[in-house]
Design brief:
Elements (H helix, E strand, L loop, with lengths): L1 E5 L11 H13 L3 E6 L7 E2 L6 E2 L5 H8 L4 E3 L10 E4 L5 H5 L2 H4 L7 H12 L4 E4 L2 H9 L7 E2 L12 H10 L3 E2 L8 E3 L4 E4 L8 H20 L6
Parallel strand pairs: 1-2, 1-6, 2-5, 6-7, 7-11, 8-9
Antiparallel strand pairs: 3-4, 10-11
Protein name: Isoprenoid biosynthesis glyoxalase ElbB
Pfam family, one: DJ-1_PfpI
InterPro entries: Class_I_gatase-like, DJ-1/PfpI
C-alpha cells in the first residue's frame, strides 16, 4: 500500500510539524505500508526563527525544506495524482495553515493552494481515504468548500487544555461546510462516508508520547479504510 504524505516545509512555525511528520512516516512503516512524500514547489509564506519566534528576512522553498524531513525523497505536488496513492495524510504545523492554505493568515476566508485542492478533491471523489492531523483538517475543509461534501472533522476538544482556539477554528470550518466534532488527543474522528480520518495531535496540550499514539491510531484507521473500499455508514 502506498500512502502519500503531504508536507508543507520543515518546522512547526513555518512548515510541517516535524515530530508529527516523522511519527506519520514511522506509523506508516509500522503498518507495512510505503510513504510517498510530496510538497508544493513554491516559496513558503515566511521563515520563522524557531528559537525566538521572530520572522526572518529570508526566503525558502516548501519543497526543498520538506526534503529535510523526507531525507531528500520528496516529489513535486504538481505532478501527483490519485493513481500514485492508496491514501493521503496531511501532517499539521503552521505550514499547513500558511503554505497549503492560509488559515493562519486569513482564517476560513484564506486561499488554498490550487494543487492541494485538486489532489484532495480527487482523492475524496475517488473514495481514497485521507487523514488530517493537527491543523491538517482545515486544509481538508478548505479543499471541500463549495463541493456539497459535509465532512466530519476535528481539530481537538474544548473540554481539555489547548494552546489554540479550538472553538473558533471549529466554527470557521463549520462555516465553510464541515461538520466539526470534538475529540481529545486520545481520540480520532472517522468519517466513514467521506473516508476521512482526523486527529488533534499538538492542537491539544499533549506530550510527545500522546501525539505519537494519536497519529498511530489515525494511520491504523486510515489503512482500515483503504483496505475496505466499500465501507460506509
Amino acid at each position: 500500500m502506498k500512502i502519500g504524505v503531504l508536507l508543507a516545509g520543515s518546522g512547526v512555525y513555518d512548515g510541517s510539524e516535524i515530530q508529527e511528520a516523522v511519527f506519520t512516516l514511522l506509523a506508516i512503516a509500522e503498518c507495512g505500508a510505503t510513504a510517498i512524500c510530496i510538497a508544493p514547489n513554491e516559496e513558503q509564506y515566511h521563515v520563522v526563527n524557531h528559537l525566538t519566534g521572530e520572522e526572518m528576512p529570508e526566503k525558502r522553498n516548501v519543497l526543498i525544506e520538506s526534503a529535510r524531513i523526507a531525507r531528500g525523497n520528496v516529489s513535486d505536488l504538481a505532478t501527483a495524482t490519485t493513481d500514485d496513492f492508496d491514501a493521503l495524510v496531511i501532517p499539521g504545523g503552521f505550514g499547513a495553515a500558511k503554505n497549503l492554505n492560509q488559515w493562519a493568515i486569513s482564517g476560513p476566508e484564506g486561499a488554498i493552494n490550487a494543487d492541494v485542492k485538486r489532489l484532495i478533491l480527487a482523492m475524496v471523489k475517488a473514495k481514497k481515504p485521507i487523514a488530517g492531523l493537527c491543523m491538517g483538517p482545515t486544509v481538508i475543509a478548505k479543499a471541500l468548500e463549495g463541493e456539497d461534501i459535509n465532512a466530519s472533522l476535528t481539530v481537538g476538544s474544548t473540554e481539555e487544555a489547548s494552546p489554540y482556539d479550538i472553538q473558533g477554528i471549529s466554527e470557521g470550518m463549520n462555516n465553510i461546510g464541515a461538520m466539526t466534532a470534538m475529540a481529545t488527543v486520545e481520540e480520532v474522528i472517522v468519517d466513514h462516508t467521506n473516508r476521512i480520518v482526523t486527529a488533534p495531535c499538538y492542537m491539544m496540550d499533549a506530550s510527545i508520547q500522546e501525539v505519537r499514539e494519536n497519529i498511530a491510531m489515525a494511520i491504523i484507521e486510515l489503512i482500515n479504510l483503504a483496505n475496505n473500499p466499500e465501507e460506509e455508514s
